[in-house]
């Protein structure tokens, strides 16, 4: 399983902070607490995934054509 | 053909030279007899024309020298000199025939003051940037903590981009690096850098930009001291890190950028978080998450305990209330117990299968039966009548 594309590391970390704060601060019933906990575990996993499996993408900007960015590969 | 150059022909009015002839002669003598030289003096009467040509006088306490510097040479200089400036001028002594004027055609000009013309240009441009508020510290934008798209405006050939790739690959490989290639030195490099910077605003979802080059000679940094480049940096819609690769000289580009890094590698490190540190931080978050769950779990446990306690006390009260009635009932039950009846001297007769023998007819003469008394059983037999 890979980290969801739509959100980034920042969002995962932010949500994680929020979850921990809610768990610590609010009187939650056990069901809600467990649900939050599970989401927190999922966010942690996704964040770790992003850090461990990422491979740097490097390209060069050739210009723009009709408002669209023209990208090219770079020999490394 | 002009008149003979024989000096004797000029000793009478009949052999008079024209002004043009003499000045042309003077020009050839001067140009042939005086080499290109460095001259030291003070600038006065400076005048720059729209064509790009400069006219001025070099003077010292004793003499003056008219000077001209053509546009093809003035355009290589960062700024025009000002009257009173002490300079070294390199040029060819000549005679300007139309004016009959001895003068120096200046090819190069150096200020003798610290930093020279570069410094003058720098201060002028800086003052303009200050006036427009571009150096206001409040303009500085914070760098995004976890950038996903990073653009780099630099030369495709220099070491700068390779250095940046290496650092980002190690620290934050989840990012995407986009090189916007441009020349960074030489004539017209400032225009190219400006065009590259302008392109940044058309890159979607860009988080941060690095502009710069590896180290270079002081003159090579001029591109990044151009007011035009500085203004282009200020116009970039995302935070910009300047990395001009010169420890001692701060360029205008550095001043306008949101952050100044001493080298391209340092810029890359400033632009990205460190993966190793983040993994450690995530471990701490995992701990925090588990500890945070402990609170709701404990609350639930405590509630369960409270309910349990109440259940126990309710049961106890019920038991108390019914206890008395229960023992009274028990006494009555006890009184009715067959064992108590046997105690009083009664006996129960049962056949071999344990059936109670209640009537005479059930006792077959000679048959065996058992007699239960209060402290045990006795085997018995019905007598013959």
Mind sketching the topology for me?
The complex is a heterodimer of chains A (76) and B (385).
Chain A (H helix, E strand, L loop, with lengths): L8 H17 L4 H24 L3 E9 L2 E6 L3
Antiparallel strand pairs in A: 1-2
Helix pairs in contact in A: 1-2
Chain B lengths: L18 H15 L3 E12 L5 E6 L4 E6 L1 H4 L11 E11 L4 E11 L4 H16 L17 E6 L4 H13 L4 E6 L7 H12 L7 E5 L14 H8 L5 E4 L8 H5 L2 E2 L3 H8 L3 H62 L1 H6 L4 E3 L17 E6 L2 E6 L4
Parallel strand pairs in B: 3-5, 6-7, 6-8, 8-9, 9-10
Antiparallel strand pairs in B: 1-2, 1-4, 2-3, 4-5, 11-12, 12-13
Helix pairs in contact in B: 4-8, 5-6
Short synopsis of the structure:
With 76 residues, chain A is an alpha+beta fold. Helix content of chain A is 54%, strand content 20%.
Give an overview of the whole structure.
- The complex is a heterodimer of chains A (76) and B (385).
- With 76 residues, chain A is of the alpha+beta class.
- Chain A has one domain.
- Chain A has two helices and two strands; from the N terminus they run ααββ.
- Chain A has a two-stranded antiparallel sheet with strand order 1-2.
- In chain A, a hairpin with a 2-residue loop joins β1 and β2.
- In chain A, α1 runs antiparallel to α2.
- The longest helix of chain A has 24 residues.
- The radius of gyration of chain A is 19 Å and the shape is elongated.
- Chain A starts with 8 loop residues before the first helix and ends with a strand.
- In chain A, 22% of the residues are buried.
- The model of chain A has no long low-confidence stretch (mean pLDDT 82).
- The longest helix of chain B is centred in the last third of the chain and has 62 residues.
- Chain B is rod-shaped.
- Chain B is built from ten helices and 13 strands.
- Chain B has 385 residues and is of the alpha/beta class.
- In chain B, α4 packs parallel to α8 and α5 packs parallel to α6.
- Chain B has four domains: 107 residues, Nucleic acid-binding proteins (OB fold (Dihydrolipoamide Acetyltransferase, E2P)), CATH 2.40.50.140; 153 residues, Rossmann fold (3-Layer(aba) Sandwich), CATH 3.40.50.10550; 60 residues; 43 residues, no CATH class.
- The interface between A and B is large, with 41 and 37 residues.
- β1 of chain A pairs parallel with β7 of chain B.
């Amino acid at each position: 399983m890979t980290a969801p594309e739509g959100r980034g590391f920042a969002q995962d970390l932010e949500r994680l902070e929020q979850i921990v704060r809610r768990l610590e601060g609010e009187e939650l019933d056990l069901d809600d607490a467990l649900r939050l906990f599970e989401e927190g575990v999922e966010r942690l996993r996704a964040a770790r995934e992003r850090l461990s499996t990422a491979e740097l993408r490097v390209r060069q900007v050739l210009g723009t054509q009709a408002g669209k960015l023209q990208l090219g590969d770079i020999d490394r | 053909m002009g008149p003979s150059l024989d000096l004797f022909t000029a000793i009478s009015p009949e052999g008079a030279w024209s002004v043009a002839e003499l000045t042309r002669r003077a020009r050839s003598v001067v140009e042939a007899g005086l080499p290109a030289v460095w001259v030291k003096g003070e600038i006065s009467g400076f005048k720059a024309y729209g064509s790009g040509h400069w006219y001025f006088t070099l003077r010292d306490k004793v003499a003056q020298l008219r000077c001209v510097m053509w546009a093809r040479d003035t355009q290589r200089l960062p700024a025009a000199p000002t009257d009173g400036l002490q300079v070294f001028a390199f040029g060819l002594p000549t005679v300007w025939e139309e004016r009959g004027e001895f003068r120096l055609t200046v090819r190069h000009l150096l200020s003798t003051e610290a930093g020279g013309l570069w410094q003058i240009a720098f201060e002028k441009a800086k003052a303009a940037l200050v006036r427009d508020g571009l150096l206001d510290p409040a303009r500085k934008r914070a760098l995004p903590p976890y950038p996903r798209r990073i653009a780099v405006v630099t030369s495709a050939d220099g070491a700068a981009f390779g250095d940046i790739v290496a650092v980002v690959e190690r620290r934050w490989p989840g990012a995407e690096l986009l090189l916007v290639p441009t020349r960074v030195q030489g004539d017209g490099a400032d225009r190219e850098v400006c065009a590259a910077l302008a392109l940044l605003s058309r890159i979607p979802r860009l988080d941060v930009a690095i502009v710069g080059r590896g180290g270079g000679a002081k003159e090579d940094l001029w591109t990044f001291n151009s007011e035009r480049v500085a203004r282009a940096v200020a116009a970039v819609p995302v935070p910009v890190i300047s990395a001009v690769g010169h420890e001692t000289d701060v360029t205008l580009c550095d001043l306008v950028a949101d952050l100044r890094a001493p080298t391209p590698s340092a810029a890359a490190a400033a632009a990205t978080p460190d993966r190793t540190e983040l993994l450690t931080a995530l471990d701490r978050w995992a701990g925090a998450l588990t500890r945070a769950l402990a609170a709701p779990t404990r609350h639930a446990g405590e509630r369960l305990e409270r309910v349990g306690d109440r259940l126990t006390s309710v049961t106890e009260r019920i038991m108390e209330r019914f206890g008395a009635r229960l023992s009274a009932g028990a006494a009555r039950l006890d009184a009715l117990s067959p064992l108590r009846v046997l105690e009083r001297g009664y006996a129960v007769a049962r056949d071999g299968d344990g059936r109670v023998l209640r009537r005479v007819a059930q006792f077959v003469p000679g048959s065996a039966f058992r007699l239960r008394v209060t402290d045990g059983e006795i085997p018995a037999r019905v007598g013959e009548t």
